[in-house]
Description:
The chain has 360 residues and is α/β, with parallel strands linked by helices. Helix content is 26%, strand content 26%. It has 11 helices and 18 strands. It has helices at residues 40-47, 94-97, 154-157, 163-174, 190-202, 217-223, 235-242, 258-266, 290-296, 310-322, 341-349, and strands at residues 2-7, 15-20, 28-38, 56-57, 61-69, 81-84, 116-118, 124-125, 137-141, 145-147, 182-186, 206-211, 227-230, 248-253, 268-276, 299-302, 332-336, 355-359. Strands 3, 5, 6, 9, 10, 17 and 18 form a 7-stranded mixed β-sheet that branches. A hairpin with a 7-residue loop joins strand 1 (2-7) and strand 2. Helix 4 (163-174) crosses helix 5. The radius of gyration is 20 Å and the shape is globular. The two termini are 15 Å apart. The mean pLDDT is 96.
Amino acid sequence: MVRAAVLPAVSAPLEITGIELPEPGPGQVRVALAAAGVCHSDLSLSNGTMRVPVPAVLGHEGAGTVVAVGEGVGHVAPGDGVVLNWAPSCGNCHACALGEVWLCANALNGAGAVHARRADDGSELHPGLNVAAFAEETVVPAGCVLPVPDGIPLTDAALLGCAVLTGYGAVHHSAQLREGETVAVFGAGGVGLAALQAARIAGASRIVAVDVSPQKEELARIAGATDYVVASENTAREIRALTGKQGVDAAIECVGRAVTIRTAWESTRRGGRTTVVGIGGKDQQVTFNALELFHWGRTLSGCVYGNSDPARDLLVLAAHVREGRLDLGALVTERITLDGIPAAFDNMIAGKGGRALVVF
């Protein structure tokens, strides 16, 4: 038996309880978690913004040590450190054939599988976003684990599984930020802080961080922000004032709210680029009129998992960490146990802090 954070039903409180895991079957890997990040997507799963089968063990950003492997697994062995990949590509669908593995049509098929059983009543549990990282141990398909690159502490490596791949990818792959350009990052949570660091790595000349909380300014500036704007109805005007009344070249929206997406778009220059990373609900409707779309010539694009290929990009991120350009620890504002996850959800709702990290 291992302890895990279980979502019994949509919008129900998380329960920290014992679960029984099966031994890894063919093509499966059992991992003892070292750490797991508490991501806003976990909150979106718990409140029904994103739908997965429940009851479920949540958690999708994690790293740990391989305990056992099933038949046919050759790329990792017991004792290896691994990063969990919650969106493994199938390699066969249309998106994968195009090389767009982040859009794999089958990436989340595993969410409907039976992952484990509750220890108290034997009821079936699903694996949330495939990997069920909010647990002392998990059993996952082999495609859901990638070796931890050399030189990356195992606890820090957990952040590579979602926050850093997403934030870095949004800047480098989706927005394709170029050296000397200006950028605004909306939302200074874990993904936003990673995007700020990515903008600094890209050589942006001005990096504007935007958040509703004045208390996040220090975090944002440590990550690379040159300017900090507390979100208000004047945010777009303030950003244009910082850029010679032109607007930034690119905006990265990490919140997922209609008003924030619209403000990010209005904050860019004529011909500017807005990348939407935040996951919003169906009720968040963003509107534009046809004339302004023509006149401003701006682009608005969605971004899934940072448009990243984890197998490729983990190595790139690791090089930035080893060479001192990327500070994974700077994303973490709280280290907690499994029992602290509900409070971490409350802090996210209140807009407090960066990434909370469950350390086992």
